[in-house]
Amino acid sequence: MGVVIIIGAQWGDEGKGKVVDLLAESADVVVRYAGGPNAGHTLVIGDDKLVFRLVPSGVLHDHTVCILGQGMVLSAKVLGEEIDALTGRGIDLNSRLHVSEHAHLIMPYHVMVDELREASTKGTTIGTTKRGIGPCYEDKIGRRGVRCADLRNLIAARARVIEAIANWTPTFRELGGEPPEVEAIIAQLEQHAARLTPLLADATALVDELRRAGKSVMLEGAQGTLLDIDHGTYPFVTSSSATAGGACTGAGIGPSKIDRVIGISKAYTTRVGGGPMPTELDDAAGAQLRDQGGEYGSVTGRPRRCGWLDLALLRYAARINGLDGLAITKLDVLSGLEEIKVCVGHQTPSGSSDSSPVGQLANAKPIYESHPGWQEDITGCRKLDELPTAARNYLSFIEQQLDVPLYLVSVGPRRDETIVLRDAFA
Question: Within a domain: residue 318?
Fold first, then answer.
């Protein structure tokens, strides 16, 4: 029992959905604490493939209370669609799904601005998912955002919408667009209010109440450490705090109440959008990783950039998050490779480093060590000693280099294709 944070230790897309779903079997509460519908968590249950963008992955367990924390930004439309999809599958959400009244709402003008910016030739494009995440967080920081609590008072919400649209109008005009009509926005809010208001709660008080009652709590992150607004590869980052520290603010829980932090990393490295990636492969090996790993965005369908595992960046993630454990996903994707390279450090203009500052990655060159690959299909392995010797040695090397123990190893996309080594809540 306790409070466990699950975070991505790379650039997101590490397989958090599957890991959270597995660990949620032992959790009573799962809280999503950051991000928005740009973060797709894919679960493979039997022959079914499910993608969640807002609802915590633990929703598939009947005993689990699911909470969307105030660190998130929510699309009322997407949330409604996910609720419909889940209830359509016979999943009972009554008294199990709660939304923080302090979470901010993604408005239509946020999406419009995001799309215009990414299509513009002015300035640097980040490669966002065009879901309005960044502009919504901009309004949050600018104190003109619309929060879920405002759905209870549409008169107050209208005033905030007027202020926000006035603020965004110069941006619309500069980018060749026109701001939406206020009344059209309010009409949409009225439709969403009836549905979402019953889900609203004081999420911080609810989490504290459940924790004090002895319930096990999992704090589920979105994106990954290297996309964190403060600690990532700025400016090619998300707009929220994706690290373990963000869990405290996004879920409203004090750091002294956290019992364990577990990071998730693929057995190799991927990234979506712009920004530096020292181990990126633009060759046949990179294409093989992409094809065998199905490396295409679960929300956008965009192909991911692929490369060898970057231990220098994982060491950085372990330090920033204070990792107590590590989950390795997609080890099976490396099957069939004769040689596997691992980046153990970076050569930068200021010298070599085994934990390079993210600010120097644009000019960093990877320092590689080579490891023998394996040819066997490992998807049927359920114990560590069932893996080929080369695969076990690869995992042991990662564990030793990071000085962080392995908690589980994923050897396939299905829930059961997993080697569990330690209990996260023990």
Answer: yes
| Nearest alpha carbon to residue 276 among 303, 310, 243, 244 | 310
Question: pLDDT tens across 43-61, in order?
Answer: 666 666 777 789 987 888 8
Q: State mean pLDDT over 379-392.
A: 98
List, for residues 204-238, the tens digit of each pLDDT value. Answer: 999 999 999 999 999 998 889 999 999 999 999 99
Q: What is the per-residue pLDDT across 185-198, written as a single tens digit (0 to 9) for each?
A: 999 999 999 999 99
Residues 192 and 288 in one domain: no
Do 272 and 238 belong to one domain?
A: no
Residue 7 is inside which H or E element, if any?
strand 3-8
Q: Are 387 and 416 contained in the same domain?
A: yes
Compute the average pLDDT of residues 252-280. Answer: 96
pLDDT score recorded for residue 56 = 86
Considering the domain architecture, whether residues 190 and 128 belong to the same structural domain is answered as yes
With beta carbons less than 8 A apart as the criterion, state whether 160 and 149 touch.
no
Of 208, 240, 260, the position where a domain reaches its end is: 260
| Total domains, the chain | 3
Residue 288 pLDDT greater than 80, yes or no? yes
What residues act catalytically? Answer: 13, 41
Number of Cβ atoms within 10 Å of the Cβ of 220: 31
Cα 88 to Cα 236: distance, rounded to the nearest angstrom? 37
Report if residue 426 sits inside a domain: no
Q: Cα(250)–Cα(71) distance, rounded to whole angstroms?
A: 4
Residues 211 and 285 reside in one and the same domain: no
Please report the beta strands in 80-184, taking only residues with DSSP state E, as ranges in sequence order: 97-100, 104-105
Domain that holds residue 289: 265-420
311 plus 242 within the same structural domain? no
CA distances from 327 to 185, 191, 324, 371 (A): 43, 41, 11, 20
Dump the DSSP string for 334-397.
GTT-SEEEEEEEEEETTEEESS--GGGGGG-EEEEEEEE---S--TT--SGGGS-HHHHHHHHH
In the prediction, which pLDDT does 39 show?
61
